[in-house]
Specification:
By secondary structure, the protein is of the alpha+beta class. The chain has helices spanning 3-13, 15-24, 61-82, 105-112, 135-140, 160-167, 231-235, and strands spanning 28-35, 46-53, 92-97, 114-115, 181-182, 191-192, 202-203, 208-209, 212-216, 220-225, 254-258.
């Protein structure tokens, strides 16, 4: 996992990023090793199920990309240490609220295995500060309390330039260059359990986007996924949660079928 060198070097030289990632926020990852009931001859007796929840702030796409990398690294450590076949570890399902849209750094890393230093996810690397997460700040700079069901995210506008200037003096800040992040070859290619990317999985009063994913290693093939509600259906009740939808996130439900599992 060679990209950890670049991440560690960035953390050593970026005091605010180190403060946020090492002291202010936590990283939660659940990994369960499940025994398959009555496995077929070509199936593994064990599968690994992992679940995580990444940091939320709209200006912290770079943090989520690094979190996604660390999640994959830890999964790789666990499943290889416990697998009888080091060259073909147990099948994997990874799911969670990534707080990342399909074009984000975290999603690109999981689907394409790499994020270079020029990706858009790094654009706030030298601007984001922990105090930008206060409710007053988020409201003042229109990250929250937007028009109901808006799909153009305010944090992508040039308007946040003033927000950056409120917190920092660009002339006094040393810019850090972002690293390129690439998953190790030992980690599998991941596929989505949804044949089509959902239009949204989160529908709040002031925010609508796809944030939740169910991914699997190449030991599986996606079979089908549950129907997702339409925006029109949700808007009847303003947003989520509501009397019929108990969460602001839609449940992403997918069925997978096994590919042939061959031990080497």
């Amino acid at each position: 996992w060679e990209s950890m060198d670049g991440i560690n070097d960035l953390l050593r030289n970026h005091e605010e990023l180190r403060l946020v990632t090492m002291e202010k926020i936590g990283q939660v990852l659940q990994i369960a090793k499940l025994k398959v009931k009555d496995p077929q001859e070509d199936q593994s007796e064990i599968l690994v199920l992992a679940n995580t929840h990444l940091f939320y702030h709209p200006m912290a796409d770079h943090i989520r990309a690094m979190q996604a990398y660390v999640v994959c690294k830890k999964i790789d450590e666990v499943w290889r240490n416990n697998s009888k076949h080091s060259h073909h570890p147990y099948p994997l399902i990874l799911c969670g609220d990534l707080n990342s849209d399909p074009l984000s750094g975290a999603a690109k890393l999981l689907f394409t295995r790499s994020v270079d230093g020029h990706h858009d996810c790094w654009k706030h690397l030298n601007e984001y500060r922990w105090e930008m997460g206060t409710n007053d700040y988020m409201v003042e700079h229109q990250y929250i309390d937007d028009e109901v069901g808006a799909t153009d995210f305010v944090y992508q506008n040039e308007g946040f330039r003033n927000a950056e200037q409120d917190i920092t003096d660009e002339s006094n800040r040393q810019a850090r260059s972002p690293p390129s992040i690439t998953l190790a070859s030992s980690f599998p290619q991941l596929i989505s359990g949804c044949s089509e990317m959902p239009t949204f999985t989160n529908f709040a009063v002031d925010f609508v986007d796809t944030l939740d994913y169910v991914l699997a290693s190449d030991a599986f093939m996606p079979k089908r996924s549950a129907r997702m509600p339409t925006a029109e259906e949700v808007k009847q009740f303003v947003a989520m949660p509501n009397e019929f939808m108990p969460s602001d996130h839609v449940s992403v439900v997918c069925d997978f079928k096994w590919r042939k599992f061959e031990c080497q």
